[in-house]
Design goal:
The chain has helices spanning 22-38, 47-62, 79-91, 113-122, 129-148, 159-170, 172-183, 186-196; strands at 2-5, 70-75, 105-108. It is mostly helical. It is globular, with a radius of gyration of 15 Å.
Length: 197
Amino acid sequence: MSTTLVFGGMDDGYGYENRNDLCEVLGATASFLAEGVYGTYRLTISDHADVIISSIALVAVSSGFKPMPAMLRARTDDEPAMRLLHLAALIQPRPMTVNLGFGPTVIDLATGESDALTVGISSSAVIPPLIIRDAAAIRERIRETAKTHAMDFSNCSTPRDVMLRIGGLAGRQWNLLAERLLSGRFADDLMTMGEAA
């Protein structure tokens, strides 16, 4: 059985100083997701899981500017994927739509056996209460960043334009990820991206 989610003022404990810098917001969002799923074991995750987490962060931050056409899919027996699905829903600043020109990007959240074991070790609560509070702060930070950078994105008429602009402004890793998410080759390239990062 699988579940599909089509979704339409953090205090910087994540080591970031400029709260509205796109690269730092992307990093803080990815760090939040990794910590929310894997707890203190977040640095032991696979490259595959790291790319999935970065992808969700990019989609979430991009959706602060325009609704993003993406769909996250997780099997209910894959605990790390289900946690990511829940956290992704909690941090979305606005709904996401699925039919805007270039079609939905499907991010399959399937994780490996080692990632499942890591989650088993990290905690027993599906989403600890502190993480839920932090999700609200991340969501608000994404909204603040979108407001701060609104003029930088005034020429972006489509969600595709927004994601490519964010990738371009945030640096090579994020730019590569944006291009692959938008190309429709995401599932095929997932492991290659983990190696390139």
